[in-house]
Write a structure and sequence with these properties.
- This is Aspartate aminotransferase family protein.
- InterPro entries: Aminotrans_3, Aminotrans_3_PPA_site, PyrdxlP-dep_Trfase, PyrdxlP-dep_Trfase_major, PyrdxlP-dep_Trfase_small.
- Belongs to the class-III pyridoxal-phosphate-dependent aminotransferase family.
- Pfam families: Aminotran_3.
- Keywords: Aminotransferase, Pyridoxal phosphate, Transferase.
- This protein is of the alpha/beta class and 438 residues long.
- The chain has two domains: 138 residues, Alpha-Beta Complex (Aspartate Aminotransferase, domain 1); 257 residues, Type I PLP-dependent aspartate aminotransferase-like (Major domain) (Aspartate Aminotransferase, domain 2), CATH 3.40.640.
- Helix content is 40%, strand content 16%.
- The strands form three sheets. The chain has a seven-stranded mixed beta sheet, sandwiched between helices. A four-stranded mixed beta sheet has the order 1-2-3-13.
- Helix 4 packs antiparallel against helix 12, helix 5 packs parallel to helix 12 and helix 14 packs across helix 15.
- The chain is globular.
- The chain starts with 8 loop residues before the first helix and ends with a helix.
- The chain binds pyridoxal-5'-phosphate.
């Protein structure tokens, strides 16, 4: 076969429909309409499509392009690493500098004694690894019956078998007929968790997992002091606490990691996305020194879990450069400052529109609730978020509407290098889109 030449737009659309099964997608609509956009370039907070239209990437693509698009330094680092050592394994006792340097850097920036990293290729692999790790840990400790994983309703932890099983959002679980056993969901109150422990027995529970702020569920903030209470319940009952920082890590909430906002240090942390700002596929699971030492001391000698791409040299080199940019350009402080501006803008929208209920945000994660009745918070029978999202798109802003499980919520998470003028532009578009969709 000859190498493909540059194709015309209509051909690309037909090939997309026929040959490309899109992840988490409206499968029938894709067959009817083809791709909504075929993107060709990115620069700062903007994406450009094949027709030259520029759109604000109001969700940092999938909450991951933290440093913004088009950073040539990352391309350069990747090219240099690929030319020098494109790949070598980290299985067994083989190693390489990018993985060592990145592991050390992550130990430095993560809170408390979270000092050892296991690398993965993304968030789902990170959470599956965390679930296997906690079960392995309790097995080594002589308590193999301690294997239940508890997560929260409305949580999202990814789509690998364990990650989906831990996901509290029903539509993701309904996709398949059977899931992994021993996964349970609790309401977001300490009482619900306590009642679960009471009913099941702490001796059967391996770990509790939660996002510091639930992202996919609709940027849902935890109740005040919730995590402090959950952490002490975990400690009282010998249950490990896994923080899923896949979205909230690397500056998203205005601190390096989301848990810092709530004054707790988890036993295990899952990361991905912002670790490379999406410039390469990488994730990780960071464990406490205590767990690491137990894994060594109690082991029969073999650690039987690893992905081919655990610690991929190019991805690690890209992550190191990405973290350097986050630090050198003060993007965590900018996330806090611009997050405050974004929330101020949401409040102006709330004051102006009858159909805007609660607005909320922390750093550059924010949400606007659409309601029929501002007083009672009652929602429309038919959610408005999809038409508002469509109106935003027409005006050059990409963001998401959440309508799972009765929600009618607009969610936002722009790149951390957004400036004040760009925040204002987003606010203006959201304001117009709500007016148009009413
Ligand atoms: N955990 C959280 C909190 C996420 O938001 C996501 C993805 O959105 C994942 C895990 C899964 O990550 P990935 O899509 O990289 O597998």
């Amino acid at each position: 076969k000859a190498a493909p030449t540059k194709r015309d737009y209509e051909t690309l659309v037909e090939l997309d429909k026929k040959h490309f099964l899109h992840p988490t997608s409206p499968i029938k609509q894709q067959q009817e309409d083809g791709p909504a956009f075929i993107f060709t370039e990115g620069n700062g907070i903007y994406l450009k499509d094949i027709h030259g239209q520029e759109l604000i990437d109001g969700l940092s693509s999938l909450w991951n392009v933290n440093i913004g698009h088009g950073r040539k330094e990352l391309g350069q680092v990747a090219a240099e690493q690929m030319s020098k050592l494109a790949f070598s394994s980290t299985f067994a006792t083989f190693s390489h500098e990018p993985a060592i340097e990145l592991a050390a850097k992550i130990a430095e920036i993560t809170p408390g004694d979270l000092n050892t990293v296991f690398f993965t290729s993304g968030g789902s692999e990170s959470n599956d690894t965390a679930f296997k790790l906690v079960r392995h840990y309790w097995k080594l400790k002589g308590q193999p019956e301690k294997k239940k994983i508890v997560s929260r309703r409305k949580s999202y932890h990814g789509v690998a078998m364990g990650a989906t099983s831990a996901t509290g959002l029903q539509p993701f679980r309904d996709f398949t007929t059977s899931l992994a056993p021993d996964f349970y969901y609790v309401e977001s109150t300490p009482e619900s968790f306590r009642a679960f422990i009471e009913a099941e027995g702490a001796e059967t529970i391996a770990a509790y997992i939660s996002e510091p702020i639930q992202g996919t569920g609709g940027v849902i903030m935890p109740p005040k002091d919730y995590f402090k209470e959950i952490k002490s319940i975990c400690e009282e009952n010998n249950i490990l606490f896994i923080a899923d920082e896949v979205i909230t890590g690397f500056g998203r909430t205005g601190t390096y990691f989301g848990v810092e906002q709530f004054g707790i240090v988890p036993d295990i942390m899952s990361v991905a996305k912002g670790i490379t700002s999406g410039y390469a596929a990488l994730g990780g699971v960071i464990i406490s020194e205590k767990i690491h030492q137990d894994l060594i001391d109690l082991s029969d000698g073999l650690f039987m879990h690893g992905y081919t791409y655990s610690g991929h040299p190019t991805a690690c080199a890209v992550a190191l450069k990405n973290i350097e940019i986050i630090e050198n350009e003060g993007l965590i402080d900018n996330s806090k400052a611009m997050g405050e501006k974004m929330l101020e803008g949401f409040k102006r929208i709330q004051d102006k529109h009858e159909i805007v209920g609660e607005v909320r945000g922390l750093g550059l994660m924010g949400a606007i609730e659409i309601v029929e009745d501002k007083e009672t918070g009652e929602r429309f029978a038919e959610p408005l978020a999809p038409s508002i999202v469509a109106e935003s798109l027409k005006r050059g802003l990409i963001h998401r509407g959440v309508i799972y499980e009765g929600a009618d919520t607009l969610i936002f998470a722009p790149p951390l290098n957004i400036n004040e003028e760009e925040v204002e532009k987003m606010i203006q578009i959201i304001d117009e889109a709500i007016t148009a969709a009413k």
